[in-house]
Specification:
Structural class: alpha/beta
Strand order of the largest sheet: 3-4-2-1-7-8-9
Helix content: 40-55%
Order of helices and strands: EHEHEEEEHEHEHEHHHEEEEHH
Largest sheet: 7 strands, parallel
CATH superfamily of the largest domain: Methylesterase CheB, C-terminal domain
Radius of gyration: 25 Å
CATH architecture of the largest domain: 3-Layer(aba) Sandwich
Strand content: 15-25%
Shape: elongated
CATH class of the largest domain: Alpha Beta
Distance between the termini: 50 Å
């Protein structure tokens, strides 16, 4: 009889502390495999497996590509690799970033849902913005179970709040309670009814994460073209509408949730404003220098012209400073 023997966990900011608390509550002979994605920057060395192994009774490690899946182990995504589950094996890929991250949570959750359906338990822990919401939705669509850390218990409640807002969550608990409850959930038999088939969108998005070259060339793409460009490659973003959950994905596979796309666009706008501010300050400094030179030569009309240019550049620079100050208030 099938049971909930595939546990996928996603975390971001504040997630190390939450993961340690979850691992501490697990039993020593858990009849399920655990897969963990924590947002990590590329080029770093991760000590997360050591931390999780010391925190709880289960061995934790970075798997190798194509490793077989075994119960009672914790598979941790390494830096700069998506951790996927395909046909009983672990896949590590350099597929397109999702929500600006690799590893990202949604690809793990999505491939687990596609391969294991009702057997999956998806868990979203502390983190900023909303990575994990789309993946948790995919798990629920395939009949799996959704568990979310109580936002009041999370150091960064944005990811838990997003999951609760858009997904029919089964349990909302503290990190300690999640670890203890998993021991009960994994021995519960899966409901004996037909599992909903994976959607075409789920297949396409999973294949993109797997770096399937054929999917990039397919013209029959899910969603509709939007008015937005991909922040990473500049391509057109296609709008995907999963009920209340709106998402965006470009031709080569970069994916964004609404909150992450908004944050990324704001960051790009801020960068452009700083560049413009620097240019105006340089113009003002140059005009000042030329005005002084003209004045030294007795060319007062020319000096006045350069002073007017300096003052205009300063006025424009001040307007940009005001916009930057307002943008800072909007993001805090």
């Amino acid at each position: 009889m099938a049971r909930h023997d595939i546990i996928v966990v996603g975390a971001s900011a504040g997630g190390v502390e939450a993961l340690v608390r979850v691992m501490h509550g697990l039993p020593p002979r858990l009849p399920a495999a655990v897969f963990v994605v924590l947002h990590l920057p590329a080029g770093t060395t991760s000590v997360l497996p050591d931390l999780l192994a010391r925190a709880g009774p289960l061995p934790a490690f970075h798997p190798k590509h194509d490793d077989l899946i075994h119960p009672g182990r914790v598979y941790v995504a390494p830096p700069d690799r998506h951790l996927l589950i395909v046909d009983g094996r672990v896949r590590l890929t350099v597929g397109p970033r999702e929500n600006g991250h690799r590893p990202a949570i949604d690809p793990l959750f999505r491939t687990a849902a596609r391969s294991y359906g009702r057997r999956v338990v998806g868990i979203v822990l502390s983190g900023a913005l909303d990575d994990g919401t789309a993946g948790l939705s995919a798990i629920k669509l395939r009949g799996g179970m959704a568990v979310v850390q109580n936002p009041e218990d999370a150091l960064f409640p944005s990811m838990p709040n997003s999951a609760i807002a858009y997904v029919a969550v089964d349990h909302v608990m503290t990190a300690e309670e999640i670890g203890l409850r998993l021991a009960e959930l994994v021995i519960q038999p899966v409901e004996n009814r037909a599992t909903p088939l994976p959607s075409g969108t789920m297949h396409v998005e999973s294949r993109m994460a797997e770096l399937d070259p054929e999917v990039v060339h397919e013209e029959d793409r899910p969603g509709t073209p939007s008015a937005f460009a991909c922040p990473e490659c500049g391509g057109v973003l296609w709008e995907l509408d999963d009920g209340e959950l709106l998402r965006f994905r470009c031709r080569v596979g970069h994916a964004y949730s609404p909150d992450t796309l908004r944050a990324t666009k704001l960051e790009a706008l801020e960068d452009a404003l700083w560049v413009a501010l620097r240019g105006l300050e340089e113009q003002a400094a140059l005009a000042q220098r030329l005005a002084e030179q003209a004045s030294d030569r007795g060319q007062e009309r020319l000096a006045n012209r350069f002073n007017a240019r300096r003052d205009a550049a300063h006025r424009r620079a001040e307007l940009i400073r005001e916009v930057l100050a307002e943008a800072d208030e909007l993001t805090h």
